[in-house]
Automatic annotation (TrEMBL):
<dbReference type="InterPro" id="IPR027417">
    <property type="entry name" value="P-loop_NTPase"/>
</dbReference>
<dbReference type="Pfam" id="PF00406">
    <property type="entry name" value="ADK"/>
</dbReference>
<dbReference type="GO" id="GO:0004017">
    <property type="term" value="F:AMP kinase activity"/>
</dbReference>
<protein>
    <recommendedName>
        <fullName>adenylate kinase</fullName>
        <ecNumber>2.7.4.3</ecNumber>
    </recommendedName>
</protein>
<dbReference type="InterPro" id="IPR033690">
    <property type="entry name" value="Adenylat_kinase_CS"/>
</dbReference>
<dbReference type="InterPro" id="IPR000850">
    <property type="entry name" value="Adenylat/UMP-CMP_kin"/>
</dbReference>
<keyword id="KW-0808">Transferase</keyword>
<keyword id="KW-0418">Kinase</keyword>
<keyword id="KW-0547">Nucleotide-binding</keyword>
<dbReference type="GO" id="GO:0005524">
    <property type="term" value="F:ATP binding"/>
</dbReference>
<comment type="similarity">
    <text>Belongs to the adenylate kinase family.</text>
</comment>
Amino acid sequence: MSLVGEAGLRQLCQSRQIFRCSHTCLKGLLGQVRSSDRHRIVTAQALQMVTAPSPEAPGQREAAAKKRVVFVVGGPGSGKGTQCDLISRDFSVPFFSAGELIRSLIASGCAEGKQLQDIILQGHIIPSEVTVGLLQKAMAETSSDTVLIDGFPRNTENRTVWQSQVGYDCEMVLLFDCPEEVMLQRLKHRRDGRADDNEDTIRKRVQNFKSQMAPVLDYYQSIGKVTTINTDRPVEDIYSELNSIWRQRFVPTSP
């Protein structure tokens, strides 16, 4: 995650603006109910946590006004993080990743993260409503009218929940198009790779991305919102094209 994303998450967690529930009390309640009911309770609590208003955050209502949102999608190893970091650096655009917001919160060990971890440990996926809620909170913490969101939406449910919960759609979808073999080699050799970055799991992740994203991309292509960038090139060449696209779409022209 970029420095902007990390700073935003740190501020959210330290200020305790997202969560208002007692993890201890919740665990006591969960011990008295069935597993299926337990999942519904934790999910409901998590959704309440990420959508609850923050009265101690002055100006949050104004900051939560409609943003120009750019979804950045592409297979694992397609270069999304690298290019988003460059755009964030050069244009002062906040860069958020739903997955990293969740992982970092859980890794922090705070009570709020443990509630999300409960959902995962029960074998459930974090509900789209919770993921979108975390992104909404992160966006509300920045005064920028434009934000980058990496790796979202991942499927049709993500997209439809975003539209219903946020109330507006993205401005653009940046699709990083990269051959599977190139992504495979990048992930196998990167220094900060995930523990499961082996050939079998990487190929499964690529196939999951393709199958889940196909209907999402079909939808956005049908309304003319997809901009495709070939990322089977040196980083500098990719960024040169991306920089040009960004200036044309999001940088005001001097009169």
